[in-house]
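Project outcomes to date are best conveyed with an example. Our students and postdoctoral researchers have been running inverse folding experiments weekly, and each run begins with a structure described purely in tokens. The record below, which covers 403 residues, was selected by the lab manager from last quarter's runs and is presented without edits.
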């Protein structure tokens, strides 16, 4: 969109205009002035509908006609207006490539016409030449403020007129071509971007499908973990969002969360499915599932799988440094792992297992909250508290016994 042009200083009093320009412009057209030069062949070779259009606005009919003849001699089409109002109407209807405006016209003068043209998005790119009295500095300053691109002084010389018009039309044509090229490039970039986005979407869907399949593989080993995977994914998203993290990252954590226990694939059934409490050796084997899961998920370029690797490795770490497998403490534990830790424990406490009874979600929430600063990151625990009602509502819908 073209910028609007501002006003300018006054002319300092009323002015009068000569009765005719004929003696100022140089008399009647000569064969030299009407002869098309080699410089104009780029105009002549165009089809009639493709030739540039020049708007001429002047209230002196003889002056207007002379300029028309000179321009038509170049192979240019013309639009002629006798006043400012007519000039604006012709400009908006005909979309000229150049406007020649006399400064002094009845109704709207040349300055006002120029300002209106520059305000109109349809024609604001049209170059404007103001025709002024020789050496009238005030007119030139006002014309520049109004948006003029060039000037012609009276008396107008035909050769100078044609030279200025030729130069501005070429500049306008090059600008139009550049803008068209920019539009084509933008369209090509948009199309390519759409193709790339579609490819990324397909890749993301393939990644999520892989995650779901691997997660189901873990479900086959431990029947009780199927619904657990769905619930902890939702809980993780709610808490990540409550921490003020970007939504894209929150969704990445949500999609990665189902893989947190994928390493249990490598745990023997006699340990994984044991109905009672594990002994020390069995517990040591069970703890290896964190590293096994990270190993399964390692080496991917996918954000989701990279996050899943982090979660698988660190979701059993504790804020106080007494967790496993690396005894990380505080912010040494990645945020995704800290979030996974709290939602994994909350859901596990709520769930019935062969070796324990289920705890009502409200009681489980209080147990989790009591571990703030010990097992869990205080900030993550605070986000859990703030989201407590939403989490308990989802827990009720997920089939927990909340009595």
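After processing, the design step wrote out the following sequence:
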């Amino acid at each position: 969109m073209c910028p609007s042009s501002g006003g300018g200083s006054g002319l300092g009093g009323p002015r009068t205009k000569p009765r005719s320009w004929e003696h100022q412009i140089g008399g009647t057209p000569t064969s030299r002035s009407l002869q098309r030069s080699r410089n104009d062949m780029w105009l002549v070779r165009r089809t009639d509908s493709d030739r540039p259009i020049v708007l001429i606005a002047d209230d002196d009919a003889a002056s207007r006609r002379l300029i028309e003849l000179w321009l038509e001699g170049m192979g240019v089409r013309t639009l002629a207006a006798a006043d400012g109002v007519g000039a604006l109407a012709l400009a908006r209807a005909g979309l000229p490539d150049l406007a020649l405006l006399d400064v002094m016209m009845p109704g709207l003068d040349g300055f006002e016409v120029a300002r209106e043209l520059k305000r109109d998005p349809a024609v604001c790119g049209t170059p404007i030449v103001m025709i002024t009295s020789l050496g009238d500095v005030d007119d030139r300053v006002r014309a520049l403020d109004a948006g003029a691109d060039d000037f012609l002084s009276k008396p107008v010389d035909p050769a100078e007129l044609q030279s200025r018009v030729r130069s501005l039309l070429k500049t306008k044509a090059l600008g139009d071509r550049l803008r068209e090229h920019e539009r084509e490039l933008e369209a090509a970039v948009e199309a390519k971007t759409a193709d790339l986005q579609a490819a990324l979407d397909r890749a993301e869907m393939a990644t999520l499908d892989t995650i779901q399949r691997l997660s189901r593989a873990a479900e086959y080993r431990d029947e009780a973990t199927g619904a657990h995977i769905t619930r902890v994914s939702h809980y993780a998203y709610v808490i990540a969002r409550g921490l003020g993290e970007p939504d894209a990252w929150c969704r990445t954590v949500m999609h990665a969360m189902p893989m947190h226990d994928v390493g249990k694939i490598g745990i023997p059934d006699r340990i994984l499915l044991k109905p009672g409490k594990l002994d020390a050796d069995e517990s040591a084997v069970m703890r290896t599932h964190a590293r096994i899961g990270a190993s399964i998920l390692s080496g991917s370029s996918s954000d989701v799988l990279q996050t899943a690797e982090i979660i698988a490795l660190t979701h059993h770490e504790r804020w106080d440094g007494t967790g496993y497998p690396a005894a990380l403490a505080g912010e040494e534990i990645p945020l995704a792992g800290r979030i996974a830790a709290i939602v994994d424990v909350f859901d596990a406490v709520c769930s019935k297992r062969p070796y324990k009874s289920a705890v009502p979600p409200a009681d489980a929430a209080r147990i989790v909250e009591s571990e703030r600063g010990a097992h869990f990151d205080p900030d993550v625990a605070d986000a859990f508290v703030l989201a407590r009602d939403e989490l308990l509502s989802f827990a009720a819908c997920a089939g927990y016994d909340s009595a």
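The first helix runs from residue 22 to 25. DSSP finds 18 helices and five strands in the chain. The training component of this project remains on track.
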